């Protein structure tokens, strides 16, 4: 157990409101999936790669198939799952107040009616989600935006609602991040020359960044960390490739 002070003079874990998800849980789940694919497909990979640019992708095709399946599951669920109206209760010294969030739509990427939040509410229960999401810092919720602060009197009901930024559906999307990350490691193993490694990392990094920027600024798939959108995966994985390349140069210069 742990102490709840100074918010409450109590000790122990409240199983009715404990948060099941978190960033370490996400890392663990992604690592398990990627590591299992890597381990179980060892005998299916060639020992020597052909000197072709795409050979490293074909040699590890099962990893990419796993990442693609995660991507398909996320995209189909995010844009096709119907999100109905939902409600939650807020406890205070004045009692319990119930709020209703009106949705009844599909493919919405905003704070109130996205499929990511709906899956977590149905799976974990709303009392087990993160109680202080970043949504509450938006201009629609507080005059202190982009910082946290008192909620506006006319703030939408979803501003007070919990939301899990490390939930199940967004973690499935993060599997693709893990797939790209382990690919950077494959390059380190199979490409022996410094220039060959850097060319691959830098070209892939900039390629992912370009995809993310196009998706974001065309409003096709905005970069959204809370939903772990595909453009967010591309942007962070691309930036990681560029930064990794820069550190590699510094280490081996």
UniProtKB/TrEMBL annotation:
Coiled-coil positions: none
Keyword Transmembrane helix: yes
Superkingdom as given in the UniProt entry: Eukaryota
Ranges that cross the membrane: 23-41, 62-82, 168-189, 201-221, 227-250
Keywords, comma-separated and alphabetical: Membrane, Transmembrane, Transmembrane helix
Name recorded for this polypeptide: Heparan-alpha-glucosaminide N-acetyltransferase catalytic domain-containing protein
